[in-house]
């Protein structure tokens, strides 16, 4: 184990919305290291979201993130030769991380021409309480509920 916990590097807010969560989302979305390309694809996706939903794209994105954010998850713990799935609360920082990763992962799995199309469709679906990312959150909560009997084995 390390002596001290690693320091979090503060993120610079994005140029358009001045939001650190947008920067964090773009950093997760980025593959190959070209941030300006990914940033423009993200802004393009928000424009498409605004056209589809006839609301502000940024607000719809924030609502989608909120809808996909889990509050509990299961963690494996080995006790007496058996492995139990123990439901635990999710740390606030991890909540945001999981919701962003799920939105990005399931938008990549969607069918569409460009990443901005796929992302826009997944954001709109998540904001409505539909889509694969929202289903992942529901499955996570359902699994935690099913394993509530093991919650006394807290990690």
Total strands: the figure is 2
The level-1 CATH class: Mainly Alpha
Instruction: Report the β-strand fraction as a percent range.
Output: 5-15%
Which percent range fits the helix content? 55-70%
Helical run tally: 6
State the distance separating the first and last CA atoms. 18 Å
What name is given to the CATH topology? Ribosomal Protein S7
CATH architecture classification name: Orthogonal Bundle
CATH superfamily: Ribosomal protein S7/S5
Largest sheet: 2 strands, antiparallel
Strand order of the largest sheet: 1-2
What is the CA-based Rg, rounded? Answer: 18 Å
Q: Kindly state the mean pLDDT as a whole number?
A: 91
Q: Can you describe this structure?
A:
57% of the residues lie in helices and 10% in strands. The chain has 155 residues and is mainly α. The chain has a single domain (20-27, 34-153), classed as Orthogonal Bundle (Ribosomal Protein S7), CATH 1.10.455.10. The protein has a two-stranded antiparallel ribbon with strand order 1-2. Strand 1 and strand 2 (82-89) form a beta hairpin. Helix 2 packs across helix 3 (57-68), helix 2 packs across helix 5 and helix 4 packs across helix 6 (131-146). The model has no long low-confidence stretch (mean pLDDT 91).
